[in-house]
Amino acid sequence: MKLFIDSADLSEIKEIASMGILDGCTTNPSLLAKVGRKIETAIPEICEIVDGPVSAEVVSVNYEEILTEGRALAKLHKNVVVKVPLISEGLKAVKTFTKEGIKTNVTLCFSATQALLAAKAGATFISPFLGRIDDTSHEGMELIEQIVTIYQNYDLPTQVLAASIRSPYHVTQAAMVGAHCATIPGSILKQLIKHPLTDIGLEKFLADAKKSAATAK
Ligand code: E4P
């Protein structure tokens, strides 16, 4: 499974990228607002750090405006993926972007039929929002599983990008059901490394190595 960072925070992106496990990045208007950055300047900087697809989201909701905005975003860097909301004007735009060779990430997906339509429009990625579904007392992972199955049944090349990830367990589950990618906040990516038994075990190995260095023949 490819691992993307869900962030627009350059120092966080740099820190995680230095671990060598990053395949891409996703941003959205809320993440950009959180760090007080404009999309036009933030995205090229992220693309310098992350060697992989970087999603940049449009904020237009009608076909022509989505096209104008998305084409401008795509020109920022060769790795830009234009993120488009799952509305009918958005799907129309995805079809056109696909014809033009512009990669797309269809966002705000909350049902399997929405995902089917996004794939038919030619989306490169579909982003089902796992955590936000869980927040409504429904099982977000079921949706990921349904989409993976439907895409497999019909050999649809759209990649399932598990989004709105809230815990390391979400990452495990998304990988178990065959999501192609997961976009994960920096804090959770760091949690993926940690295990208390690793820390306890390492402490013991280091202490024993020190002891034996002093006494071993
Ligand atoms: C990423 O593409 C999505 O915009 C993001 O994962 C949404 O996450 P949230 O539900 O935590 O805001």
UniProtKB/TrEMBL annotation:
Gene3D superfamilies for this protein: Aldolase class I
PROSITE patterns: TRANSALDOLASE_1 (PS01054)
Keywords, in A-Z order: Cytoplasm, Pentose shunt, Schiff base, Transferase
Keyword Plastid in record: no
Subcellular location: Cytoplasm
Pathway: Carbohydrate degradation; pentose phosphate pathway; D-glyceraldehyde 3-phosphate and beta-D-fructose 6-phosphate from D-ribose 5-phosphate and D-xylulose 5-phosphate (non-oxidative stage): step 2/3
Active site: residue positions: 83 (schiff-base intermediate with substrate)
UniProt-recorded name of the protein: Probable transaldolase
